[in-house]
């Protein structure tokens, strides 16, 4: 009789535990399978040209990882354009063209890095620490935002 009671107690304790473990495993597997890859290669030249910079950062004004990305870009003397999607409708449109809602995203003509990954940034972005950057090429702390490119002046 005591063995049976112990068996019932053990089974009653293990069944919910097994369900919890299986459920969290399914949740993690689902998250892993649906997660965006940290780097996507492709042809992003038109997007980069439209924004007007060889390196484009898609960010929000409140994202701490976006701020760390800005700091990394400044520390490594990378000329870039900061497209702050929660302040600029054009920047939000740029993010939609990538079919993603994650920030930060660092875009060059050949690749997109999703998330903060200094190792991928270093492999991706052109930089030359010996070359001084023009002030206009660097995003400022007030959040230089994307803008629709100005139409070329027409001459008659």
Automatic annotation (TrEMBL):
Lineage, broadest ranks: Bacteria, Pseudomonadati, Pseudomonadota, Gammaproteobacteria, Lysobacterales
TM stretches of this protein: 44-66
Keywords assigned by UniProt, alphabetized: Membrane, Transmembrane, Transmembrane helix
Name assigned to this protein: Glutaredoxin
Boundaries of every Glutaredoxin domain copy: 55-109
Database matches in CDD domains: NrdH
């Amino acid at each position: 009789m005591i063995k049976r009671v112990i068996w019932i107690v053990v089974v009653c304790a293990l069944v919910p535990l097994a369900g919890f473990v299986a459920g969290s495993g399914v949740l993690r597997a689902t998250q892993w399978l649906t997660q965006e890859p940290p780097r996507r290669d492709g042809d992003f030249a038109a997007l980069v040209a439209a924004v007007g910079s060889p390196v484009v950062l898609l960010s929000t004004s409140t994202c701490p990882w976006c701020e760390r990305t800005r700091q990394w870009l400044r520390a490594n003397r990378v000329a870039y354009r900061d497209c702050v999607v929660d302040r600029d409708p054009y920047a939000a449109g740029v993010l939609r063209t990538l079919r993603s809602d994650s920030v930060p995203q660092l875009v060059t003509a050949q690749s997109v890095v999703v998330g903060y990954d200094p190792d991928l940034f270093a492999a991706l972005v052109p930089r030359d620490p010996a070359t001084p950057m023009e002030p206009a090429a660097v995003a400022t702390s007030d959040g230089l935002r994307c803008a629709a490119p100005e139409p070329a002046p027409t001459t008659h």
